[in-house]
């Protein structure tokens, strides 16, 4: 790189990371989130604001974020990489976007199908869950509506295609169809569903709720979307399971299957925590791994 090229690069970097391009956030105003993903390379996002500067409305940048793709992520298709970029950006910028109204801009129109899909893919299982808490405040604008994004690293004509290059999960559609039916048992979570569907708290119903459901409900750890009940902790949400017949399948999926490779208890715990939740799951997981024949032989 010549001195002129280096100086030009440093000048552009300075202009992009200082006023007037860079703005301080105003949490009373809506945000704009722009993302772009380069397959086999990396993820990038920019958070924007439209503010009044020197008496005139102007859109500026609050912050930029980026990261490289991991080895496994580099094998994803273009649409899956874009979906990953959205989930990563929402989680990384949660301190700006939680509870805020914002627009999400993308140049990947095929992403529309994934945002409304109930995927059974093990890698993508938590992605729709991760964005649900933002959906009520998020307006999605695709390229043909905004005209602001450069497609750059995406195909000129992207079509909706089947998911390729990612190992499939054993959690089939029958599993997700059976889970809502198990919620009908009032002793387990029927009362909880009634509480979540009401606008105001009901002490009478709360008194009928058993622990640990009651404690988790009061801590606002449950939410109900599309017939499925989810349990959240910090920035992770997991499907709530009450039918014990489904638990062995989840444990096998998160520990025994070939692409999990009988991971350690801590690693398996991370996988289960982002997939499903049920009462006393950590103790049951520990017992399951301690009685796993293959794991015991490997010690």
TrEMBL record:
Keywords: Endonuclease, Hydrolase, Nuclease, Nucleotidyltransferase, RNA-directed DNA polymerase, Transferase. It comes from the Eukaryota. GO terms for molecular function: endonuclease activity; hydrolase activity; RNA-directed DNA polymerase activity. InterPro entries: DNA/RNA_pol_sf, Integrase_H2C2, Retrovirus_Pol_polyprotein, RT_RNaseH. Residues 242-299 form the Integrase zinc-binding domain. Residues 26-134 form the Reverse transcriptase RNase H-like domain. Pfam families: Integrase_H2C2 (PF17921), RT_RNaseH (PF17917). Coiled coil: none annotated. PANTHER family: PROTEIN CBG26694, PROTEIN NYNRIN-LIKE. This is Reverse transcriptase/retrotransposon-derived protein RNase H-like domain-containing protein. The lineage of its organism: Eukaryota, Fungi, Dikarya, Basidiomycota, Pucciniomycotina.
